[in-house]
Here is the input.
Amino acid sequence: MAFITLGSALVVAAGKNLVRSIFMFFVTLFGLAGLYVLALADFVAVTQIVIYVGGILVLILFAFMLSGREALVAAEKHPGNFISLKNIPALFLASLFLIVMLNVIFKADVNNLPWVKAAVASKNVVPVNGSGINNIGVNLMTRYLLPFEVVSILLMIALVGAAHLSRKEAAEA
Here is the structure.
């Protein structure tokens, strides 16, 4: 799952075709949700799919579809070099972050963490559908249903308004 997530994220970052990058971002977000499921964080996985895949990725697709052809052609004419003088600070910071991450990963002694030892010693298994998830679901569909629906309607109105504003009228062209 990590290989799929990292591979698709690299295709997104290094890809020159915007459409392919958007769809590989879709795979990246689903892979990240899969990693959350493997970490027994099922609520975070479902939230990842609903919010990021269902909401933000759709907005990115709408932004791509509503952007003018001239802007896309101009972006393709200036692809830029990956290693250039203005990218050196970003590459330096990314390299430094990679070194810190690898240092943490290789020096972490996961088997000797106190909470891992306690969980192994007590043989407690974390239930995937614990009471926390049930309470969140019940509250979201009963107590907080109206605010949830109001926010979704407001977001839909904002999306329709953005689509209307981005349209070019025939008289202006």
The CA atoms of residues 59 and 159 lie 8 Å apart. The mean pLDDT is 76.
